[in-house]
UniProtKB/TrEMBL annotation:
The keyword Transmembrane applies. The chain crosses the membrane at residues 35-52, 58-77. Keywords: Membrane, Transmembrane, Transmembrane helix. This is DUF3137 domain-containing protein.
Length: 216
């Protein structure tokens, strides 16, 4: 069963964002120092080009200077972008919202790396089947009986600043694990079409037994 709702940030979630801000500020300081050193290096290379007028030195120093300036350009753009991003994240701490997708399950079938979009799961809860997963579930190997996908967003819901899949309750072992993807037979089945077109359908995992032996 899937429930979607919105709530305010918890204290722990605010601390996570504050920790990210502190890490980014530390990175900004390192980037500024790096840019200063690169500028000094460019000045030094420019001086060498001035004093060494031989063709080989002009080519070597010129190419090196070009690539350093190219790198400098993107580093400076990043330095300009970071303070704005930090202010936005600080506003999220104060006024942001959390979008929660709560998934309760009794049993599940695990599908490894389906269509290169991360793991998918066919879940069963109170005789209802639901298909979940995808890129948001990269790295999620197993599920518990309560799972929450959270997205921390700004108050206008224009961007996601943190996301996580939380699992709580008891660990549930898969009913099946499909290590090699799904057979064409199940992909062409009516039950699969319903799972991909609806949030949930009436049924049990046993309804898929006739298809699974080709995928295991």
């Amino acid at each position: 069963m899937i429930q979607e709702y919105e709530r305010s940030l918890t204290g722990k979630e605010r601390e996570i964002l504050k920790s990210q801000i502190a890490t980014t500020k530390s990175l900004l300081t390192k980037k500024i120092k790096s840019v200063i050193l690169l500028i000094l290096l460019v000045i030094g290379l420019g001086t060498l080009i001035f004093y060494f007028q031989k063709l080989w030195s002009l080519i070597i120093f010129g190419l090196t200077t070009f690539f350093i300036i190219w790198h400098l350009y993107y580093e400076i753009l990043e330095i300009i972008r970071i303070p704005k991003f930090l202010k936005e994240k600080e506003r999220v701490i104060a006024t942001g919202i959390v979008k929660v997708c709560e998934i309760n399950i009794d049993r599940f079938i695990k599908i490894n790396g389906f269509e290169d979009e991360g793991n998918h799961f066919i879940t069963e809860y109170n005789n209802r089947l639901t298909l979940i997963g995808g890129q948001d579930f990269f790295g999620v190997k197993n599920l518990k009986n309560k799972n929450e996908k959270i997205e921390i967003m700004d108050s206008k819901k224009t961007a996601i600043y943190y996301e996580e899949v939380k699992k709580s309750g008891k660990i549930i072992n898969p009913y099946y694990t499909l290590k090699n993807g799904i057979s064409d037979k199940i992909l062409d089945s009516e039950i699969w079409m319903k799972l991909t077109n609806q949030k949930s359908i009436s049924g049990k995992l046993e309804d898929l037994d006739e298809f699974l032996h080709e995928s295991i």
